[in-house]
Amino acid sequence: MAELIAQTTRRALSRRRLFGLAAGGLAAAGLAGCGTSQPPKSFRWQAIPTYSLVAPLPERVEYVRARLADYERETGWLPLPEVTSNDINASMAKLLLQASQGRAPEVAQVDSYVFGRFARYANDLSEPLRRAGLRLDDWFPQFRELMTTETGQPRALQFNTDVRVLYYRRDLVPNPPASWDEVFSLGRRLAAHGKYFMFCGSRSEDSVNTALWPQYWAQGGEILNPDGSPGFASGPARRAMIDSLGFLRRLVTEGVTPQRISTLRGDDDVNPDVLAGNVAMFMGGSWQGADLQKLVKGADFGREWGAAPVPSRSGDNHRCVAGGWTWASFAKDPEVAVQSMKLVIDGYCGDSGMARWCTLGGYLPTRESVYDHPEYHGDAFTPVFREHLRRYARVRPLRREYQQVSNAMQIALSSVTSLSKEPEAAVDAALAQIV
């Protein structure tokens, strides 16, 4: 697996260098051909690798290339593509520094859960939305809140998302468990036959998103207080956090979940066990349904598996994390701001663009109306995911303090699933790390 990742990275880097040379040659050729005439107006457009012209999947590259060609032909403007690194945290930190210094690309892809830190530097997108005929209230409420954070104006456009659910094998789990008690009652019986309840439980953002925050939120806890301090430092919220970690630890100690989940960093790390037939239920991301359908041989994953809310302590008030990506404008010239946003609105945020891109990538649209668009095609689980966005999904706190709290709780979760700490000690250790 490590060698496969290394090979993919080398290929991406090689393609990036080639693309940079090609783009430079195109610009030079255009200037040479124009003689003394003005060069075409241009702007920088920055995307993460998997959403760009160096994506490892050819169908994505084809889509991006076609959108760029259509845009240039229609407007006469020349987008200058830039690609971030594969290290998302590092690339977002670099982009934030550039934005604070007025050096950011004119339009750039920003991870939704960190956009709150960028909002003050981003442009108001009311005019591009008006020109495109898009209504802000067509986005699900949690994304409207994110897009208008800090200023009340739309300063980012979220163009895809995901949710976390409980996947379950229909032949082994006729009725998916809703509460902790139901998870243990069913899980012990299934584990006795080598069929486990799985999730990623190591130190990672995936682990807290999938396994911890839903449990804590379902009990009424908030990750941050209004002043940015940890919401679980005292009182009922502290008890809720300790009990949430206790639930995850008990899954391991009672054998419902194998202890090696403490080494799984990402949701996708569960997939090999699912394919091997060792899993009866797992908490994971909405994209995994489509990915596993491609990986299973001679089977129909969408028919053999179901999706339900992540179990909660009480069996109701379910919650889950919704993630995804946004586009933001950092252009100083109003004309450039409008033209650069037209590129991403047409290709990713408008009716057809969002429908086609989300279908292509296996993502969930962030606008309610797009689910009924003829060009959007989901999978067997899409109706469940759409209902989760309506009823259960929340976005992580948009404040800068979130990352430090998340990092501390990632360590706490890992220490609990590895059985190196008791839940209360893990929470105390996490609070001691947070300044």
Protein model, in words:
The protein has 17 helices and eleven strands. The radius of gyration is 23 Å and the shape is globular. The chain has helices at 2-34, 58-75, 88-100, 115-118, 126-132, 141-147, 180-191, 205-218, 235-253, 271-275, 287-295, 301-304, 334-349, 351-361, 382-391, 402-417, 423-433; strands at 42-47, 78-83, 107-111, 157-160, 164-169, 196-198, 279-285, 305-308, 320-321, 325-329, 393-394. It folds into two domains: 42-155 and 324-391, D-Maltodextrin-Binding Protein, domain 2, CATH 3.40.190.10; 164-321 and 397-433, Periplasmic binding protein-like II (D-Maltodextrin-Binding Protein, domain 2, 3-Layer(aba) Sandwich). Helix 2 crosses helix 13, helix 5 (126-132) crosses helix 13 (334-349) and helix 9 crosses helix 17 (423-433). The chain has 435 residues and is of the alpha/beta class. A five-stranded mixed sheet has the order 2-1-3-10-4, sandwiched between helices. Mean pLDDT is 91; it is low at 1-36. Helix 2 links the parallel strand 1 and strand 2.
Overview in brief:
It contains 17 helices and eleven strands. With 435 residues, it is α/β, with parallel strands linked by helices. Helix 2 links the parallel strand 1 (42-47) and strand 2.
Topology of helices and strands:
Elements: H1 2-34, E1 42-47, H2 58-75, E2 78-83, H3 88-100, E3 107-111, H4 115-118, H5 126-132, H6 141-147, E4 157-160, E5 164-169, H7 180-191, E6 196-198, H8 205-218, H9 235-253, H10 271-275, E7 279-285, H11 287-295, H12 301-304, E8 305-308, E9 320-321, E10 325-329, H13 334-349, H14 351-361, H15 382-391, E11 393-394, H16 402-417, H17 423-433
Parallel strand pairs: 1-2, 1-3, 6-7, 9-11
Antiparallel strand pairs: 3-10, 4-10, 5-7, 5-8
Helix pairs in contact: 2-13, 5-13, 8-9, 8-16, 9-16, 9-17, 13-14, 16-17
